[in-house]
Write a structure and sequence with these properties.
Elements: H1 2-20, H2 36-51, H3 54-67, H4 72-84, H5 88-101, H6 106-118, H7 122-135, H8 140-152, H9 156-169, H10 174-186, H11 190-203, H12 208-220, H13 224-238, H14 241-253, H15 257-267, H16 274-286, H17 290-303, H18 308-320, H19 324-332, H20 341-354, H21 358-371, H22 376-388, H23 392-405, H24 411-423, H25 427-440, H26 445-457, H27 462-475, H28 480-492, H29 496-509, H30 514-526, H31 530-542, H32 549-563
Helix pairs in contact: 1-2, 2-3, 3-4, 4-5, 4-6, 5-6, 6-7, 6-8, 7-8, 8-9, 9-10, 10-11, 10-12, 11-12, 12-13, 13-14, 14-15, 14-29, 16-17, 16-18, 17-18, 18-19, 18-20, 19-20, 20-21, 20-22, 21-22, 22-23, 22-24, 23-24, 24-25, 25-26, 26-27, 26-28, 27-28, 28-29, 29-30, 30-31, 31-32
C-alpha cells in the first residue's frame, strides 16, 4: 500500500507548503493519485470491514474509489466487501471494472478469482488465478487460489501440479509444502507426504496444520509414538479443541486410555460453548467413562437446566450405568419447546419399549409427535416402538409414509428404513435403500459403512465391500464402526491376523461397544484361542448388548463353557 500512503503524505505536504507560500523545487510530472480525503475514506472503510460493519465499509470504500479512481487496491477492497455482504452483482461489476482499468495488476486478478469462486463461476476463477500467476509468478496466493479451484472441480491432479509449480518458483513456501503434503497423504503416498510436511515444519516450527498432517502421515506408517508427540506439541502450542479431539482419539487408539480421559479434563473449560462441552461428554462415553459423562452432565445441567442436549447426555450416561429408569425420567421431563426435544422423547420411547413397557412407549412417542408431527427423530422412534412390540408392518408403514412425505429425500429416514429392513431379514432391500443415500451423497460415511458391512457379513461381492469400506475409512480414519467393519471383512476373507489388528484397534477406540468385542472374540475363536474368545464374549455380555447380538454372545458363552 506504499502508493496510497505516500500519495496521501505527499498531498498533505504539498498543501502545507502551499499554505506557507513556499513552492516545491520540482513540480510533479503527473497529478497525485490520491487525496488525503480519499485516503481517509479508504482507512475508514477498512476499519469498518474489520469491525464487521459491512454497509459502512462499502459506503466508505465506494467514496474512496470515486475520489481515487486510479487506485487498484481500493477497487479490490470494495469488491471484497461487496461479495461478503452478498451483493454479488455489485461485486462482479466492481471487480470486472477493475479488470478493464487495471489489466496488468495481479491483485485485481487474484480478487477476481476469489469472487468468481464465491459466485460459482469456477472456470472463470481458474482463468483469473492463472492470469494473476502470469503477472506475478512469485506471489503465493495465486497458486493457492488456483489449486483450490482445481480441487472444487474434482481435479486433484491439477491441484497437485499447481502446488509443485509454486514450490519450483518458491521452494520455501510453507503453505505449498503443507498443501502438497496433504494431497500426497490423501493419495496414500505417506513417504512423499512426510517429506513435504517435515519440510514445512522445518521452515515454520509453529505451523499447527503442518504438525497435525505430519502426525497423520507418521501414524499411517505405523510410527504411533512420534505421531502422538507431534499432536501433543500441536495441542500445547494451539490449545485447539479440534486438535485435542484428534489427540484424544489417537491416545485411545494407542491403548493409552488413561491419558485420553485425562486430556478431556484438560480440554473442558467453563468459558466454552455449551454444545462443545456436551461433546466432551460424548467422548467420555466413547471411552467407557459413563460416570465421568454423568458428572459433566450434572454440572452442565446446573448451569443450563433447560438444555435438551445436556439432558440427552445425562440420560445416555445413566443408561450405560444401568440406571435406565432414571434415564427415562430425565428424558420425559424435557419440555416440547426445547431444542433436542425430539431426540430426547424418541430415546425415552425406545428405552420404555426395550423395558417391555410398550403402551408407555407408544404414548411417549405419540405425545412427542403431537407437539412436533414432522420431527424425523420422533417418527423413527415411533416406528422403532412398533418394531420392538412385534408389529413390523406398522413400523414399515410409518417409515414409508414419512419417506413419501419427504419425497424420499430425507437421508435420516432412508438410513432408518435401511436399518429396519436389515433387522427384518431383508438385506438386499436394506442395501438398495442405503445405495439411494450414496447416489445423493457419495461421501456419506454411514451409508458406505452400512453397505460394506452388509456385503462382508453375507460374503457377497467382497471386492466391492472392500472398496466401500476403504473409502469410508479415508473419510473417517478414527471411526470405530468403520474400522470394525473393515476388520470383519478381513475375517470373512480369512485374513485373521489383519482382522485381529483392526478389531483390536476398533475396541480400543470404543471399549464399551459389545458388538466389536463379539467380532474380536470370533477372530480369536477362529485362531483356536477359545479362552481369549470367552473373555471377550463375557466382557461384551457385561455391557448389556441388545438383540440379536446378545443372543449370539450367549450361544458362544454357553458352548465354550460346556467344553471346559
Amino acid at each position: 500500500m506504499r502508493s496510497l500512503f505516500v500519495a496521501a503524505l505527499g498531498a498533505a505536504l504539498w498543501a502545507a507548503c502551499g499554505r506557507a507560500g513556499v513552492a516545491p523545487r520540482r513540480p510533479p510530472e503527473r497529478p497525485l493519485p490520491m487525496s488525503a480525503a480519499a485516503y481517509g475514506h479508504y482507512l475508514r472503510g477498512r476499519l469498518a470491514a474489520i469491525e464487521g460493519d459491512g454497509a459502512r465499509a462499502a459506503a466508505e470504500l465506494g467514496a474512496a474509489a470515486a475520489a481515487a479512481p486510479e487506485e487498484a487496491p481500493i477497487r479490490v477492497a470494495l469488491a471484497d466487501v461487496l461479495v461478503r455482504l452478498g451483493r454479488r452483482d455489485q461485486a462482479l461489476l466492481a471487480i470486472e471494472g477493475a479488470q478493464r482499468r487495471f489489466p496488468r495488476r495481479a491483485e485485481v486478478w487474484r480478487e477476481s478469482g476469489r469472487i468468481y469462486r464465491r459466485v460459482g463461476r469456477q472456470a472463470d476463477a481458474a482463468r483469473a488465478y492463472q492470469r494473476a500467476i502470469d503477472l506475478a509468478p512469485d506471489a503465493e496466493d495465486g497458486y493457492l487460489g488456483l489449486a483450490s479451484v482445481w480441487m472444487s472441480l474434482g481435479r486433484a491432479d491439477m491441484a497437485e501440479a499447481t502446488y509443485r509449480a509454486l514450490l519450483l518458483r518458491r521452494p520455501h513456501s510453507v503453505a505449498g509444502h503443507v498443501r502438497l503434503g496433504e494431497r500426497l497423504l490423501a493419495r496414500g503416498r505417506t513417504d512423499d507426504a512426510e517429506r513435504e510436511l517435515r519440510r514445512a515444519v522445518d521452515l515454520d516450527p509453529s505451523h499447527i496444520r503442518a504438525r497435525v498432517a505430519l502426525a497423520q502421515a507418521l501414524r499411517g506408517r505405523g510410527r504411533t509414538r512420534e505421531a502422538l508427540a507431534l499432536l501433543r506439541e500441536a495441542f500445547d502450542r494451539s490449545s485447539s479443541i479440534d486438535i485435542g479431539r484428534t489427540l484424544f482419539e489417537q491416545l485411545l487408539e494407542s491403548g493409552d486410555r488413561g491419558s485420553a480421559v485425562a486430556l478431556l479434563g484438560q480440554l473442558d473449560r467453563d468459558d466454552l460453548e455449551l454444545e462443545v462441552r456436551v461433546s466432551f461428554g460424548a467422548l467420555y462415553l466413547q471411552a467407557g467413562e459413563a460416570e465421568e459423562a454423568r458428572r459433566l452432565a450434572a454440572s452442565l445441567a446446573a448451569q443450563s437446566p433447560t438444555s435438551g442436549s445436556v439432558r440427552l447426555l445425562e440420560a445416555r450416561a445413566l443408561v450405560d450405568l444401568g440406571r435406565r429408569g432414571e434415564a427415562i425420567a430425565v428424558l420425559l421431563a424435557v419440555a416440547p419447546d426445547t431444542p433436542a426435544y425430539g431426540q430426547c422423547r424418541a430415546l425415552a420411547a425406545e428405552l420404555l419399549a426395550r423395558s417391555g413397557r410398550f403402551a408407555d412407549a407408544r404414548a411417549a412417542a405419540e405425545q412427542g409427535l403431537a407437539n412436533h408431527p414432522h420431527d424425523t427423530d420422533l417418527i423413527i422412534g415411533r416406528a422403532l416402538v412398533s418394531e420392538l412390540a412385534g408389529r413390523p408392518a406398522d413400523a414399515r408403514a410409518l417409515l414409508r409414509a414419512a419417506l413419501t412425505a419427504s419425497d424420499d429425500r430425507d437421508q435420516d429416514l432412508l438410513y432408518a428404513m435401511a436399518g429396519f429392513e436389515d433387522r427384518q431379514g431383508n438385506p438386499d432391500r436394506a442395501v438398495a435403500l442405503a445405495e439411494r443415500i450414496l447416489e445423493r451423497d457419495p461421501r456419506h460415511t454411514a451409508a458406505l459403512n452400512f453397505i460394506g458391512f452388509s456385503l462382508a457379513d453375507r460374503r457377497r461381492d467382497l471386492p466391492r465391500a472392500e472398496r466401500l469400506l476403504e473409502r469410508a475409512l479415508a473419510l473417517a480414519p478414527s471411526d470405530s464402526y468403520v474400522i470394525d467393519s473393515l476388520g470383519w471383512l478381513r475375517f470373512r476373507q480369512g485374513r485373521l491376523v489383519q482382522a485381529q489388528e483392526l478389531l483390536e484397534r476398533a475396541a480400543r477406540l470404543a471399549p464399551a461397544e459389545p458388538e466389536i468385542l463379539w467380532h474380536l472374540g470370533e477372530v480369536h475363536l477362529a485362531r483356536s484361542e477359545p479362552r481369549r474368545a470367552l473373555e471377550l464374549y463375557e466382557r461384551a455380555r457385561a455391557l448389556g448388548p441388545e438383540e440379536p447380538v446378545r443372543h449370539r454372545i450367549d450361544d458362544r458363552i454357553h458352548a465354550l463353557r460346556a467344553q471346559r
